[in-house]
Write a structure and sequence with these properties.
It is a single chain. This protein is of the alpha/beta class. The chain has 13 helices and 19 strands. The mean pLDDT is 94. The two termini are 35 Å apart. The strands form 5 sheets. A 6-stranded parallel sheet has the order 2-1-3-4-5-6, sandwiched between helices. A 5-stranded mixed beta barrel has the order 15-16-17-19-18. Strands 7-10-11 form a 3-stranded parallel sheet, with helices on both faces. Helix 9 runs parallel beside helix 11. The protein is globular. The chain folds into 3 domains: 133 residues, 3-Layer(aba) Sandwich (Rossmann fold), CATH 3.40.50; 240 residues, pyruvate-formate lyase- activating enzyme, CATH 3.80.30.20; 55 residues, OB fold (Dihydrolipoamide Acetyltransferase, E2P). It binds S-adenosyl-L-homocysteine (SAH), iron/sulfur cluster and FE3-S4 cluster (F3S). The site of S-adenosyl-L-homocysteine has 17 residues, from strand 13.
Length: 451
């Protein structure tokens, strides 16, 4: 940090997906001209923002318990003569249940949805003057992006970059189409400008974000955008998430085989291996069509790491449906995966479906699925032992003299290495593997395998 010290402290707590992480950074960007500097604890903060997630009931409930704590913290501080902090709820819970938040927790000063946070400076000024408008939840992704500062201050050598927002798919279990609005794509020029600015500040790897990132509707789709960004000097690695099987087109698959900067990693949620359940979920793909996509992508890029999302206990899921999910998982072989128990979300079609599954059954299925996915993840990691992988060093490790980096397959790699290698992509010989990470030693450059 340089220049004069910021006079006001901003604490942002981020829940949910990577897009919320991106949004939190952008909120800090819009607030910085007002003199707010980011701090890593809520105590003593002048402005506290909870950037929330609505995807499952648990995520939503966390927000209310956190708000209770913040309220107490503020009261204590004021009792000791401190200034009154401002409490803001942002993100998907703000969008979905703004009115309810203000009713359940009157200590909240401001509620601002995911497409309205560019208005934060104005809204905060207003709450300080009088208790006027306290809810901003309009859908205006285009207005938001136009209002955000073009220059970002990246926090490391990897960065998220939102290229698409919203969802038109309406899977019957999911709140996202209601919290993020309709699918909308940023113009490619604006994305390129942001990527260039990041690269100019030392960012080597960007992850392009969208609720359905491969539905990116700029000219030529996501494949063209990836090729365009791959031409930016210094930007050596590109990833994207989350994609939908329906939007996985030939051009994008081909790019995996042709664009060196496009990392061999694909997060492609499938949710279930049962066609009956997939239909009830309104996923518009089958287990078979999903497997064919994986096959095609592997034909283009044989070493690609596959990741996915799974839901167990969707309404009407029988043992045979769940067995079909296990079968699909066995057929794919995952490098990583996220699995969830179905959570009934108010207002979504699945919440009203008959055949809601017992919690105990969900628990049992989740445990079985996780055991299988964990075994696959261990096997994938173990298969790297003995290879030399290009690793982007991101940060210092917990032990002195140790750096932590990222493999092309998004594994964390721990290596004894000097600080001067931070921000560099360096060949590492992998010597051991655990479930979540790899460890290795610096290798000679000539041993570098193409990845
Ligand atoms: N847009 C992405 C994912 C969005 S949400 C996609 O379509 O793949 C991330 C994951 O949360 C989903 O893939 C799904 O596995 C899970 N999820 C969404 N709604 C859920 C619910 N009601 N209960 C449990 N898991 C859910
Ligand atoms: Fe939710 Fe489905 Fe849209 Fe993904 S595609 S955000 S799971 S509705
Ligand atoms: Fe959660 Fe909203 Fe992301 S509901 S998963 S924060 S899009």
């Amino acid at each position: 940090m340089s220049g004069s010290a910021p006079q006001k402290r901003l604490y942002i707590k981020t829940y949910g997906c990577q897009m919320n992480v991106y949004d939190s950074e952008r909120m800090a960007d819009v607030l910085s001209p007002l003199g707010y500097g980011v701090t890593d604890s809520p105590e003593g903060a002048d402005l506290v923002v909870l950037n929330t997630c609505h995807i499952r009931e648990k995520a939503t409930e966390k927000v209310y318990s956190e708000l209770g704590k913040l309220k107490e913290m503020r009261e204590e501080r004021m009792a000791q003569g401190g200034a009154r902090s401002t409490i803001v709820v942002a993100g998907c819970v703000a969008q979905a249940e703004g009115e309810e938040i203000m009713r359940r927790q009157p200590a909240v000063d401001l509620v601002v949805g995911p497409q309205a946070y560019h208005q934060l400076p104005e809204l905060i000024a207003r709450t300080h003057r009088a208790r006027g408008e306290r809810l901003a939840a309009d859908f205006a992704a285009d207005v938001k992006f136009d209002a955000l500062p073009t220059d970002r201050r990246p926090t490391g050598v990897t960065a998220f970059l939102t290229v698409q927002e919203g969802c038109d798919k309406f899977c019957t279990f999911c709140v996202v189409p209601y919290t993020r609005g309709a699918e909308w794509s940023r113009p490619a020029e604006a994305i390129e400008a942001e990527a260039r600015s990041l690269a100019g500040q030392g960012v080597r790897e960007v992850t392009l974000l969208g609720q359905n990132v491969n539905a990116y509707a700029g000219e030529g789709g996501l494949a063209a955008l990836v090729r365009r960004l791959a031409a930016i000097p210094g930007l050596d690695r590109i990833r994207y998430t989350t994609s939908h099987p329906r939007d996985m087109d030939e051009a994008l698959i081909a790019a995996h085989g042709e664009v060196d900067a496009l990392m061999p990693y694909l997060h492609l949620p499938v949710q279930s291996g049962s066609d009956r359940i997939l239909k009830a979920m309104n996923r518009a793909h089958t287990a078979g069509s999903y497997l064919r996509l994986i096959e095609k992508t592997r034909a283009a890029r044989p070493d690609i790491a596959i990741s996915g999302d799974f839901i167990v206990g969707f309404p009407g899921e029988r043992d045979a449906d769940f067995e079909a999910t296990l079968e699909l998982v066995r057929a794919v072989g995952h490098a990583s995966a996220f699995s969830f128990k179905y959570s009934r979300r108010p207002g979504t079609p699945a919440a009203a479906m008959p055949g809601q599954v017992d919690e105990a059954v969900k628990d049992e299925r989740l445990a079985r699925l996780n055991a299988l996915l964990e075994a696959q993840q261990r096997a994938f990691n173990a298969a790297q032992v003995g290879r030399v992988l290009p690793v982007l060093f991101e940060r210092r490790g917990r032990h002195t003299g140790q750096l932590v980096g990222r493999s092309p397959y998004l594994q964390s790699v721990h290596v004894s290495a000097p600080d001067r290698l931070l921000g560099q992509i360096v060949p590492v010989r992998i010597e051991s593997a655990a479930r979540m990470s790899l460890a290795g030693v610096l290798a000679e450059a000539p041993e570098l395998e193409p990845a």
